[in-house]
Structure formats: C-alpha cells, structure tokens
Design a protein that fits this description.
- The protein has about 425 residues and is an alpha+beta fold.
- The protein is built from 13 helices and 15 strands.
- A seven-stranded mixed beta sheet has the order 10-9-11-13-14-8-15. It has a five-stranded mixed beta sheet with strand order 5-6-7-2-12, covered by helices on one side.
- A hairpin with a 2-residue loop joins β13 and β14.
- α7 packs across α8.
C-alpha cells in the first residue's frame, strides 16, 4: 500500500465486534487460539516470513484498533507483525503496545505454531483461513525442494468486510433468550492467573460410529458428554439447582448469504434443567440435547437470536452515548449476561488441508479463553482421523475433564491426553 492509502484505510467494526474492545481486559480477554502441531521443530525466521506473506494475501488482518467518539474502529497498521517464542498461557489478553498494535499474536514452541486472535478482528471460521495461509507458506518455505513450483491456486478474493449482521437481520424478529440464570461451576481457581489446557485427542471414526448409533451428530454427542461430566463431577457435589447451560456458537454463513471475513456468528444455548427434566443419566441427557438442538437450529430460531443481538448494537440510545461513557455500561451488562451461561462449547469442525501438505501436520487445536464466570470453556476441531476436544480452565481441579475422558474410553473410543501440565491428570492415560 502507498502512503496515501495507509492514511485513508479504515473500517467500522461489525455488530459483534463493537462490544469486545469495550468489555475486554486481563480478566475477560475475548481471545481464541488456533494451533498446528507439525512433525518437526519450528524455524522462527521462516515463520516470520510466512506470516508476512500471509498478510499480503489477507490484508484485512493488517489493522490496529482505534477509539472513535462513539465506537472503536479499525485502521491500517503499517508496523511489522511480531513472531516470538510462546511464553504466556494460551488465550491471554493481547496487549497492543507489546504487539505492534496487532489484534492477533503468532507464537511458536517446539513443533507448534499458535495464533491468538482478539474476537473484534474476526471469528473462528475466518481465523482458520488466515492461519491456514500461514501454515501453507511455512511448509512451502521449509521444504522448498518439494514445493519448487506453485502448487496452490491462490484464492481470488471475493471476501469482504461487510457487516453481515446488519445486512441479514430482521427488525421485526423477537429475541428468544431465557431468563433463567445458569449453574456456575464451583471450585478454587488456579493460582497466579494460570490457564490449564487439556486436549483429549479422540479417534474420529470411533466417535462417529458411537454418535451414529444414537442418531446424534458429533456436536450433539459431545455436548451431552460435557453436560454429563459437569453433572457428575461438579453439579452433584455442590448440590446444584440452576440449569446447566451450554452456549454453542453457530456459523451464520450456513444460514445467510455472506462472504465477509469479519465476525458472522450467533449461538444457541442448550438449557439442561437437571431436576425438572429428570436428566440423571447420559441417555436422558443426550435425548434432551438432540431435541433442543433440533428446535433451536431451525432457521427462524437462528434469525430470532441473531436479530435480537443486532438490535442491541443498533439501539439509538446506545449509539449516541460517547464511547467513554459506553464502557462502564457495557462492562456491567457483559458481566450480567455471562451469568446466563455455565460454559461454552465451540466445534469448528474439520480443518481441510491440501493433500501434499498433510504429511507435515500432526494435529490442529482450538482453544477459547476461560473467564471468572465461565471458568471452563471447551472447543473442538478435527483433522484427518482425530478430533481434538480441548478444555481451557482456571479451576484448580480437572475432575470434569477426567469424567469426560473416562466416559468416552468406556465406550471403547480411543482417547489420548495432552496438556500444558498446569493440572495433574494422571488417570488420563493413553488408551
């Protein structure tokens, strides 16, 4: 870009992204992480070049956050992105001054490459596109003898930064949020602000067969296992009474026409009222989850949820309040909203990789930042014959993770455990 374009280039935040800069901080980072585990040690010099090349293709990500009078906005960032060895816990708040103002951070450790992304920049599905470009570039440059000729057809970008929420929402649709507060996971927090990451690497074909035997999708099945694990390991012990509520992000591009690289997701909330619905066995929980998914994933229900959220961002009263006054109001509202969810589970599905690159890759991982209210958050992604289910937690206890592991292995599903060793999960042995 020439100097003139650098000075003029800016864009508004999408409807979801507006809230994140106001509510984010060291306690609520609103950061997610994508990682790739390669089969050889990372060469940082090559990774730096791979990142810079990816930014040439995905210039949407070459931005920094600025404060306007009413809202934050994004503008072109002329600085060089930083690549450094991983030394922080995953999904930590990205300090702009320490990161050349970028809203993502690329790190490496041993055979692993990470990208932490602030949610104001994009969502998980678009984040994968950018991260995959970095990975492709890295493999090509670290194996030049095999990739002497251009094997990939570079995407001719038809992507945009439009606000697909505003484009697709229905002003007349009424919201459908539950008024019941959620069960809050109980337990002591890990000391010194540490975050535990426990990856349960599951045989995908065996999991598919098990889910199919119950006429369930993989996401439905894993959601039911998660609720069961919370019920057995935390809810009963603490005599829980409020519903276990699991927030499931939904990719809105499956429901509405959009080619945006900005955020475009909504969510459904599975609300398991354990006593009222007599959900005291896994089979009962799974049947409930399947029914709840079916009802809440109807297009008209997705439209209601998405439109209800858009109305908040387009509310005239909120729009005209100066940003400096919005911050305390939004932060208090955000804290209140979090009380209506026990945990979040995001399954971004299969990460597709061009065949010739696959042999250099072991696995992909996704992690979501836990927070003071949602002390555990869960995520999953699949690559080849693995699906990696990840718990990120600030609880000084991994009994939920252990019950989850034990349940799957008792179903003759092979699972192996990897972690950042913040918590001891000794009985999570490779099966």
């Amino acid at each position: 870009m020439n100097d003139k374009k650098e000075k003029l280039y800016w864009r508004r935040l999408d409807n979801s992204a507006k809230i994140f800069p106001i509510s984010a901080g060291k306690r609520y980072s609103t950061v997610f992480r994508l990682s790739v585990v390669l089969k050889e040690a990372i060469q940082p010099d090559i990774l730096q070049i791979a990142l810079e090349k990816a930014l040439e293709e995905y210039e949407f990500f070459r931005v920094r956050l600025k404060s306007g009078f009413f809202w934050n906005y994004l503008e072109y960032n002329p600085k060089k992105p930083i690549v450094e060895q991983e030394k922080e816990y995953p999904c930590k708040y990205i300090e702009p001054k320490e990161n050349n103002q970028y809203l993502f951070k690329v790190t490496y450790f041993d055979k692993k490459i990470n990208i932490d992304i602030f949610h104001s920049l994009t969502d998980g599905n678009s984040g994968i596109m950018f991260f995959r470009e970095i990975v492709y570039n890295y493999i090509e440059m670290s194996h030049k003898e095999e990739f002497q000729e251009e094997l990939r057809i570079k995407r001719k970008f038809d992507l945009s930064t439009e606000d697909s929420y505003i484009k697709n929402y229905n002003k007349k649709a009424k919201g459908n949020n539950s008024s019941k507060k959620a069960y809050k996971l109980a337990g002591r927090k890990i000391k010194f602000g540490a975050i535990s990451a426990i990856h349960e690497i599951i045989d995908l074909q065996e999991l598919k067969q098990e889910a199919k035997s119950h006429n369930a999708t993989i996401t439905q099945y894993l959601t039911a296992v998660l609720i069961y694990a919370i019920y057995q390991a935390n809810y009963l012990k603490n005599k829980g009474k409020k519903p276990i509520k699991v927030c499931i992000p939904v990719n809105l591009k499956k429901y509405f026409p959009s080619n945006t690289i900005s955020n475009f997701f909504s969510y459904i909330t599975v609300e398991a009222q354990m006593q009222k619905e007599h959900l005291d066995t896994f089979d009962k929980i799974l049947e409930f989850v399947k029914k709840d998914f079916e009802e809440k994933l109807m297009p008209e229900e997705i439209q209601k949820t998405m439109s209800g959220n858009v109305k908040l961002g387009t509310n005239l009263f909120i729009k005209i309040i100066p940003l400096v006054l919005k911050k305390p109001i939004v932060r208090l509202s955000y804290l209140e909203i979090r009380k209506y969810t026990t945990t979040t589970f995001s399954n971004i599905g299969r990460i597709g990789i061009i065949g010739k690159y696959q042999k250099y890759i072991e696995d992909f991982l996704m992690l979501i930042a836990p927070e003071p209210v949602e002390k555990i958050k869960c995520s999953a992604c699949s690559f080849e014959n693995h699906i990696v289910f990840t718990f990120t937690s600030i609880l000084d206890d991994c009994s939920i993770e252990k019950v989850f592991y034990k349940f799957l292995t008792q179903k003759n599903i092979h699972v192996r455990i990897e972690s950042n060793e913040i918590l001891d999960i000794k009985d999570g042995k490779e099966s």
